[in-house]
Design a protein that fits this description.
The protein is α/β, with parallel strands linked by helices and 635 residues long. It has 3 domains: 3-35 and 522-633, Sandwich (Immunoglobulin-like), CATH 2.60.40; 75-205, Jelly Rolls (Sandwich), CATH 2.60.120; 208-517, Glycosidases (TIM Barrel). Helices cover 21% and strands 37% of the residues. It contains 12 helices and 33 strands. The chain has a 9-stranded mixed beta sheet, covered by helices on one side. Strands 3, 4, 5, 6, 7, 8, 9, 10 and 11 form a 9-stranded antiparallel beta sheet that branches. Strands 2-12-15-16-17-18-19-20 form an 8-stranded parallel beta barrel, surrounded by 5 helices. Strand 19, helix 11 (454-469) and strand 20 (474-479) form a beta-alpha-beta unit. Helix 11 (454-469) packs parallel to helix 12 (507-517). The radius of gyration is 27 Å and the shape is globular. It starts with a helix and ends with a strand. It binds alpha-L-arabinofuranose.
């Protein structure tokens, strides 16, 4: 925030401290809209190593040597004089995993393979790690696998191969490090003779949930998401149709999944694929909102359009997915789901067609997808993609088409400045109540320098008050992107930052968490006296607020955002019910420049009991805070 704001508000605060500046009138007898359980969700895309090097527990980078470019990425190979090695594909492990490392010993000798993971592998003392690899060839000898910290071996195990290895076979070792280290390497020492083919070299903590890192999973659980949008984002589109995401490549045994070039500039294993995604949604209690390619690659820069014939395949992919997710176990894809361990259907209710697509060609394709999906799955709701912009000609044309063609849900993406967000909290007041619903599938406040600071989060919180008030129109909203592996990211700001062994939530994370945990079931009518003012072309309020009611806990939930450097005192008057004397207060507070880090969480929710409440009380909302008051309603 500029110095100008700071000085202006400081001056105002000196004049106004102690006085009641606003009246908040809450009328319990006037309620609506009901707030859908889906409202606050997660957008999960493998960007910033969110999956590979992130939520997916695999610690080895480039485990299957499939990469078209940067073939040895993650690996260092030291060889004795008589040893040669290369990446080959004449004896593939399977048709999706064709490349492997071949090490040839012309006499008994030694070679060492080292993998550094994503800038050093973190391991914990006493935890069990499973090393596994596929081997083939006529090699005889010993393979010793070690977890090494500098020169200290923290764990080791050997595979003794007295007989020639023969055809591809999986070998595993259990390794338990003797100490915790955040910066180890996996070292594989091979001593013997003959030819050894190596593929799918893996190291994973034994304790994991469906291949997911526990600490990152906990962060997702903390968000209490109502839905989860996956796998993208631009990942859905691909740089070309060739590398666009195809769900069928992401299920089944991991060694049979295709390692693919990821739109965001690295290779992905698809180790967390569509099946794990559905399991994750189930665990989190989130409605899956899978997004599918509409037969168009990255429309902004490299649009490639599927031919009429190809488009049928893309459409069939969606139909097959729905059979996979929802079909009976005697259907082809339903039986595959059952064979993976989930005979019960997942009951997927939404699918999205496209990400940041627009214009007549997209609309034509969308129509074809919709027709085919509705014919077989009339109850599945289809999300229509908006363009990358959230205003302007493309955006308006997309909305016109969506309305004229009875689109059910329109996916909007808003990456805007905090100032824009503060000035547009009433955006959805103006939306047609009878038109398409909105999925705000991606949004974030982008400060100058794109910092994940409190100023950005305050603006997001203010914007969300408008979203909640309009949750008859906006039925889903998800911050984007979700994860950032520090040092391995392509995009900031993000919701959750992590490295190999630590994780922290940004201020935006805690805003999302506080809003999701204090959602309420219905909006309660409220009015706050405020004087709007204009500055630098934007229209601001002093406070932003929304009031909801949680039927189960019988609590009125008052959220007030004060983004400015001045405390504001509000006279709260409640009509239509009686509130108890004691309630709860949850606050997030800080300096606008504050950021969280591994070492310090400056912005985290603080909760306390407040007393002395009744149907009319005064409350001071401190400068630069998000406040939630939970007021118990008397029987
Ligand atoms: O969230 C990051 C990217 O932003 C998404 O992949 C894309 O949809 C948007 O442009």
């Amino acid at each position: 925030m500029s110095k100008f704001f700071a000085v202006l508000f400081l001056a105002l605060s000196i004049l106004l401290v102690g006085e009641v500046q606003h009246v908040l009138t809450i009328d319990f007898s006037q309620q609506g809209p009901e707030i859908p359980e889906t409202l606050h969700g997660i957008f999960f895309e493998d960007i910033n190593h969110a999956v590979d090097g992130g939520l997916y527990v695999e610690l080895v980078r480039n485990r299957s040597f499939e990469q078209e470019t940067r073939r040895y990425e993650g690996w260092r190979i030291e060889r004795g004089n008589s040893v040669k090695s290369s990446i080959e594909e004449t004896h593939p492990l399977n048709e999706n995993n064709t490349r492997y490392l071949e090490v040839r010993f012309s006499e008994t000798d030694r070679a060492t393979l080292t993998n550094l993971g994503y800038g050093g592998i973190a391991v914990f003392q006493g935890q069990e790690y499973i090393f596994s690899t596929y081997l083939s060839g006529d090699f005889t000898g010993t393979i010793t696998t070690m977890i090494v910290d500098d020169d200290e071996v923290l764990a080791s195990g050997s595979i003794l191969l007295y007989q020639p290895v023969g055809d591809w076979r999986k070998y595993t070792l259990n390794l338990i490090p003797t100490k915790t280290s955040t910066d180890t390497r996996l070292s594989i020492s091979i001593q013997g003779s003959g030819t050894l083919r190596i593929d799918m070299v893996s190291l994973m903590p034994k304790r994991n949930w469906n291949g997911m890192r526990e600490d990152l999973l906990e962060m997702l659980e903390g968000l209490k998401p109502g839905f989860m949008r996956f796998p993208g984002g631009c990942l859905v589109q691909g740089n070309t149709l060739e590398n666009a995401y195809r769900w069928k490549e992401s299920i089944g045994p991991v060694e049979q999944r295709k390692t693919k070039w990821n739109f965001w500039g690295y290779y992905q294993t698809l180790g967390i694929g569509f099946y794990e995604y559905l399991l994750l949604c189930e665990k989190l209690g989130a409605e899956p909102v899978p997004i599918f390619n509409p037969g168009i690659s990255f429309q902004i820069e490299s649009p490639e359009y599927a031919s009429e014939e190809e488009l049928k395949e893309w459409i069939q992919d969606v139909l097959d997915f729905l059979e996979f997710a929802n079909g009976a176990t005697d259907t082809y894809w339903g039986s595959i789901r059952a064979s993976l361990g989930h005979p019960e259907p997942f009951n997927v209710k939404y699918v999205g067609v496209g990400n940041e697509n627009w214009g007549p060609k997209y609309w034509e394709n969308f129509e074809k997808f919709r027709k085919a999906i509705k014919e077989r799955y009339p109850d599945v709701k289809i999300v229509f993609s908006g363009p990358p912009s959230y205003e302007g000609t493309d955006f308006r044309q997309a909305w016109r088409w969506a309305k004229e063609n009875n689109v059910e849900i329109f996916d909007e993406h808003i990456y805007a400045s905090p100032e824009w967000m503060l000035a547009n909290t009433d955006r959805y007041n103006r939306y047609d109540r009878n038109g398409p619903k909105v999925m705000l599938g991606e949004y974030a406040a982008h400060t100058d320098g794109r910092r994940n600071n409190w100023w950005a989060a305050l603006a997001e919180a203010a914007f969300l008050t408008g979203v909640v008030k309009n949750s008859d129109v906006v039925i889903m909203a998800s911050y984007a992107p979700l994860f950032n592996r520090v040092g391995w990211s392509q995009w900031v700001p993000d919701l959750i930052w992590f490295d190999g062994y630590r994780v922290f939530g940004t201020p935006s994370y805690y805003v999302q968490k506080v809003f999701a945990e204090n959602r309420g079931d219905v909006v309660v009518h409220s009015e706050l006296t405020d004087e709007e003012y204009r500055m630098f072309g934007y229209r601001y309020k002093h406070l932003y607020h929304v009031v909801t009611y949680d039927e189960k806990s019988r609590e009125l939930i008052v959220k007030v955002i004060n983004p400015w450097p001045e405390d504001r005192t509000v006279q709260v008057n409640i009509k239509g019910i009686t509130v108890e004397e004691t309630g709860r207060e949850i606050t997030l507070a800080g300096d606008p420049k504050d950021e969280n880090s591994f070492d310090e969480l400056k912005i985290v929710p603080k909760e306390r009991i407040i007393t002395g409440l009744n149907n009319s009380f005064e409350y001071t909302f401190k400068a630069q805070t998000v406040t939630v008051l939970r007021l118990k309603v008397k029987e």
